[in-house]
Fold these 2 entries.
Entry 1:
Amino acid sequence: MKYTEFEIISKYFQRHQRKNSNEIQKGIGDDSALIKILDNNVLAISTDTLVEGTHFLKNIAPKDLAYKTVAVNISDLAAMGAYPKWTTLSITMPTSNSVWLKEFSDSFFDTLNKYNIKLIGGDTNRGPLSITLSIYGTLEEKTALLRSSANIGDLIYVTGHLGESAAGLFLLQKKIFLKDLKIRNYLIKKHLHPIPRIYEGINLKNIASAAIDISDGLIADLNHILNNSQCGANINLNKLPISSILKENFKKKYYLDWALNIGEDYELCFTISKKNIPKLDIMFKKFLINCTCIGYITPLEQGFHLFYNEKEIFLKKRGFNHF
Ligand code: TPS
């Protein structure tokens, strides 16, 4: 029997556990766990592992690995609207190479300092290269951006552009080729240096109804919002934010697949009631980041549908799957 990552979680790890008075979330199904600390303040906890061969290639520069480890973890807190504050680092490595360690740790602390995050603990082991980071942040209880609170009629938005990280990965893996070195390096940078949408998440928490970060591809991640909120959705694929760089250099069937199914864009996908759109416009002018409406939430019975040129599209696969 083969399971997906999410089937494994729901079948084996989503068991009924007695709830303490200071725990807010019912289960383990959001981007971060939430624990009440003081008055109305909540601790948001998130953890992510990066494994050689699965999440990064063997020849990755230590500085790039350190940056990406921090960025993808911060992205989970961004999706909750939390401020990242502390982190623990568990690192498993084959040898204690001082050149590697210096470059990794310099980049790791540069990235932590940029976001004002402190390293407070961790673990160091020998073995195949793998890094686990936990990030702890804070937010006010009532403002947490959950996956479970989208409402029928809400509009569905994504920040930034989708699919460029996948193009960068395939360039690194030599699955695709580009002559133009400038564009090639730009796309590889999108893969190695995703920018966590932390300030957008913090500001969205008073405006959006639900949010998630796009790590496994838009379809899989939006599906989490739909499952947790018990809703359906209609998506207009003509509206997907695909950059002119992808459109000018690759075929449509490739960039649509990258945007929908590959992931690691670490953009936010969020839902918002129509009455909050003017507030959203003000906010995104402030951050100078584009933010695109790609569809709307429907009742659960209507299901999840994708349209391209007004015709319904049926995908064979939906999102990145580890298993
Ligand atoms: C060498 N990849 C790995 S994990 C993931 C994606 C799209 C989804 C998010 O992971 N092979 C190599 N490097 C990569 N980055 C990929 C494949 C693609 P998670 O769900 O663990 O956060």
Note: The radius of gyration is 19 Å.
Entry 2:
Amino acid sequence: MTDLSSKNRQSWLVVGKGAIGLLAACQLQQQGAGVKLWLRQPAPLTVDFTALDGSRHTHHFEPWPVEQPIETAFIAVKAYDALSCIQQLQPLLAENACLILSHNGLGTLEAIQPPLKPMQQLWFLTTTHGAYIEPGYQAERQVVHSGTGSSVLGAIQPASSQTPKVAKALHQAIGPLHCVADIQPYLWQKLLINCLINPLTALHQVENGELAQPRFAAELTQLLDEFCLLAERAGYPQDKAAAWQQLQQVIAQTASNRSSMLQDRLAGRQTELEFITGFVLREAQRLDLRLPGHQQLYQRCQDAGF
Ligand code: KPL
């Protein structure tokens, strides 16, 4: 990547007022990009942002004007809203619009290809940056960038797209950014982490770090074994020892985090279970595999009402 110091003047729409959407919005604005949010209300949103070094910054975001064509959008919505969100934006998209989608889980775009025109591009970004929204804020939001990470960007539609112009801005905002020809293996790696950490923490209502306790070791091992079996069969083989190490690392690095599924559950929101464990089970069925650990975990989550 070149000239990382130069200011970026691109005009961004950020959709999604969750931690990752607002993290990207704040960091893009900090570099000088014009950032507006997809807001229901006409009033601007104020975000009190705590950067990694502990410094605090106030950001104001105007709502996206309905008459303005969208050239670049970062869409960090829940998995279950991804397709309808793209469909909703469609009439406003510029002929050469570039959309970057980011969410947990898999299986949102398989059934229906988003209705995009030939020059419009859809990319997927997966990130390991940690961020959360301080609970209790209503009128404005307090976003904390809690852990550094990196991001991977790959084309969804058209599949062979060249690195987009916006890669540099994303590199500065939530980088380092790696652009890859095939995003799927990276999504499977993230799925592995999410399908082990999220349902268990949400079910037991514990912070991520609690999963390092010996009482979770047997269940995590079974879930990992089953996931590796599935991933191998699906064409995304995982190195089990490396995956276990990666899992422990994420648990340690995000020890005091509430997983997104636990946050959703505590807030009474729909969870992404269907796109995490649900996706794992649908893939297992397609490939004629039985995954009793994931099946039971899914059932327990359903019985618990999420
Ligand atoms: O992605 C996450 C999530 O909570 O959704 C992890 C990595 C588990 C961090 O909490």
Note: Residues 184-204 form the longest helix (21 residues).
